[in-house]
Amino acid sequence: MSIPTDRSGGPGRRRLLRVVLTGTVALAAGLVAGSPRPPQDPVAGGPGRVRPATPASALRELETGNARWRSLHERHPDETRTVRQTLVGGQHPFAVVLGCVDSRVPPELVFDQGLGDLLTVRSAGEVLDEAVLGSIAYGVLELGIPLIVVLGHQSCGAVAAAVRADEGGPALPGHMQYLVDQIHPAIDRTLRGADRIDAAITANVRLVRARLAAEPELAAKIAAGDLAVVGARYELTDQQVRRIA
C-alpha cells in the first residue's frame, strides 16, 4: 500500500525545493502497491529485522508500518528483552520524524516502529527553533540517518490557534505566541473557516520541509543522495499517512 500524495502547490526556495522534490519523486517511483521488497540493509534492532540504510528503503519501512497500524495488524517490533539489552551499546535509528506534540499522533505507533527505530522530535505545529534544528542535525550528521519526515496532522490545534489569531483573535499567552508567529506564513487568506485551517496545516508542513532543506549541512546530504526530506500528513479519521509533494 503506497502513501497517497497531496500535490497542491506551495511556497519554498526554488533551487533547494527542486533538489528535495527530485529526491521525493525518485522515492515515490520506488514505492509499489502491496508488500514491498525486503530492503537489503545491515542488520540492526531485533533478530531478523534489517535497518533501512537509504532514503528509499527507510520510506518503504515507514509506509508498510503505517499500513499495519491502520489495518490493526501492528507488530510492535523491537520491544523484546534482547533488543533492550542490545540498545544499551548504541542506537541506529533509520528515520527522523519531526512531528507535532499532539497526543493522538505518536510516531512510533503511527508507523508501527519500536525501540531504536526512530529519532522523534516533536514541537507544536512542527515549529522549528534552534533546539529542534540541532536535534534533527544530530540525527543526520552524527547518527547517519537517511530520511527526515515532517509529519503534520489533521485537526492540528497549533495551526488552528495561529489561524484564529490571524483573524483577530486574542494574543496567546507566554511562549505560545512564538508558535503562532512561526505558523503565520502558512495561512491562505483566500480561504475561509475549516478550509483555511486545513490548508494551513499542509502549507506549514511544506514550509518546514523547505526550511530544513535550506540548512547547508542537510542540503549537501540531499544533493549527494544520502538524505531525503519528505513532508506528510496523518489523517485522524482513517489513520493514514499521506505524502505532501
What does this structure look like?
- This protein is α/β, with parallel strands linked by helices.
- About 40% of the residues lie in helices and about 10% in strands.
- It contains nine helices and six strands; from the N terminus they run βαααβαβαβααααββ.
- It has a six-stranded mixed beta sheet, with helices on both faces.
- Strand 2 (about 95-100), helix 4 (about 105-110) and strand 3 (about 120) form a beta-alpha-beta unit.
- The two termini are about 20 Å apart.
- Belongs to the beta-class carbonic anhydrase family.
- Catalyzes the reversible hydration of carbon dioxide to form bicarbonate.
- It comes from Streptomyces virginiae (Streptomyces cinnamonensis).
- This is Carbonic anhydrase.
- InterPro entries: Carbonic_anhydrase (IPR001765), Carbonic_anhydrase_sf (IPR036874), TAT_signal (IPR006311).
Q: Biggest sheet, in brief?
A: 6 strands, mixed
Note poorly predicted spans: 10-45
Strand content range = 5-15%
Class computed from helices, strands and strand pairing:
alpha/beta
Q: Could you give the distance between the termini?
A: 18 Å
Task: Strand order, main sheet: write it out.
Answer: 1-6-5-4-2-3
Q: How do the SSEs run, as a string of H and E?
A: EHHHEHEHEHHHHEE
Mean pLDDT comes to: 86
Helix content: 40-55%
Rg measurement, Å:
18 Å
Helical segment count: 9
Spatial shape: globular
Q: Can you count the beta strands?
A: 6
Pfam families: Pro_CA
Region (Disordered): 32-54
Function: Catalyzes the reversible hydration of carbon dioxide to form bicarbonate.
Family: Belongs to the beta-class carbonic anhydrase family.
